[in-house]
Amino acid sequence: MFRTSLSFKVNLAIVAVLGLVLGGATWFNLMAQDRQAVENTKSQAQILSKTLTNIIRIDMEGRCQKDVMKVIRMMGQFQDIETIRIFNADGIIMHSAQPGEIGKEVDELVYNVFTSPDRSKPFRSEERGHRSFCMVEVMYNEPRCHTCHDPNKEIVGVLEVCLSMAKTGEHIRQNARFMVASTVVTVLLVTGAISFLLYRMVNRPVRELAETMKEVERGNLEVRTRVRGRDELGRLARSFNSMIARLDETSREVERLHREQMMRAERLASIGEMAASVAHEIKNPLAGLAGATQVLAQGFEPDDPRMPVVQEMLKLIERLDKTIRDLLSFARESVPNWKRVNPNDVVEESLFFVEREEGGTRDQVDLALDPEMPEITMDPQQIQQVLLNLILNARHAVGGRGRIEVRTSARPTLEDEETPVAPDWVEVVVRDEGPGIPPEKLSEIFKPFYTTKNQGTGLGLPICRKIVEAHGGRIHVESQVGAGSEFYVWLPRTQKEET
User: Fold this and answer.
1) 18, 207, 221, 323: least CB-packed within 10 angstroms?
2) pLDDT score of 498
3) CATH 3.30.450.20 describes domain 6-172
4) Which residues of the chain have pLDDT under 50?
């Protein structure tokens, strides 16, 4: 948990950046100090070697090396001078501050210094454990030296001076320890300060926001975060509190509407049960009234003035019977009787029944059936009821003036934005040239008991949607005022029970 926290990641990044920056600066500084120390030691060695060379030359011009050993031994007593000696071109030591070296050959390292371009080189002595800087100064056999030296020799001798860099190395190591300690202390102080600031300014407000969010997740919408400040987190906290307040208001409103909807649903359920019960009780006496009225009508002559009254009674009884059938059909849970049927055949049968209706005519309907329409699994009686209802509604919308189009397609030709249609569904469309449906009423037409007809029950379209959805399909309407309406029925080719 700690390794995934924001403070740990920020501190780790800060430590890495400071470590790289300060560590790099320390390393470059130490390298610069080392180079400066070597340059300073080289300058001292050059001055010392030049001085000794001049002293030795002056002394040798008059005394022929009588006081050279005194000069070398005297200079060799200085603390920082490790080696002062003179060797010939063959590497044999002729004079040295350490008499035991006289007559020996110089080591290879010194001879390499002698043969190097600038005749100077720093090195680390394994015996002494610190670095030294050696420089050689060649003393050539000049004409004034011929009184004491063979004129055929090119070089009289080579002066070697080695200066100790022990003190300089110790100073560099002290600086290194100080700079490393400073780097560590700086990183710790900066990390501590940033950790404290992160805790006060970020961690604590974020934790407070997280705890408030947990309370909101548990359903407590009365909680509020106590983060204050004018920074980004403070503004976030105020926005969060405002959002919770709006959520609380919305939740209360939703609960209120839910309670109202539940109460309304309960009332509607009770009314529906009562209406179904009353309709069932009315159905049988109504059938008796219809039979009795028909028998009564048989006893009248065609020109009997009572005949129109009886015929009007039969129409009213038929209207009541249809209302009761629609009410019972909407209230009753009907189970489809699955069969493999071609939807084109169901459309043809529906149009046949439309012709039998009063005022119905086939000439008013334009039929376009897809010849590639396959057989699908459905209840032909229920789908016929849907199509019959849609066609009768279209005929009522156009009256006797407009046209009605019924077409089928083996593939959907329109995508429902709210409920996507599967590409393997079939489509049946009923289109009319009626006045159209206003946009504000499109969402109401599938609600029970909503109707725009003077004699309608408002159950036709709800029953249609109930049947189509029981088949796993969709019903959709497109309408434009003054241009007519199109009702789309989409049905799956195979029901889930078969797959």
Assistant:
1) 207
2) 52
3) yes
4) 499
